[in-house]
Amino acid sequence: MDWFNSVSAALLNKDLDGLWVRQREISDNVSNIETPGYKSKSVSFEDQLKKLMAEGGENSGDLISRIESTTPQTSVSDDESLRLDGNNVDAEKENIELARTQINYNYSLRELSDYFSRLRYAITDGKA
Length: 128
Description:
Number of helices: 4
Strand content: 5-15%
Number of strands: 2
Shape: elongated
Helix content: 55-70%
Distance between the termini: 22 Å
Largest sheet: 2 strands, antiparallel
Radius of gyration: 19 Å
């Protein structure tokens, strides 16, 4: 068994990658809140990962390689703006999404850290 190439570790790594991209796009949205005509961007990747997990794979190596090949999708919102300058960034919505992304990032980072702590415990026979 390859301990470092598990499905759990691959999912957590890809989750962290997607959350990082989402946080970057939220930061771009907030920094362009006063830019006339700017359209907000959003990032999706969770549905792709859920679909991969539902489909499964012939073996874990195949599933891991498909998880690793998944890339976060950035889309530009075509929502109408109530502002005269055409900018559709909603500061309240961006702040909520930023807080949710940070909580998810911290949770995933903690899970990955716990995974490697359990591995270390098993390798050192509980003596470390």
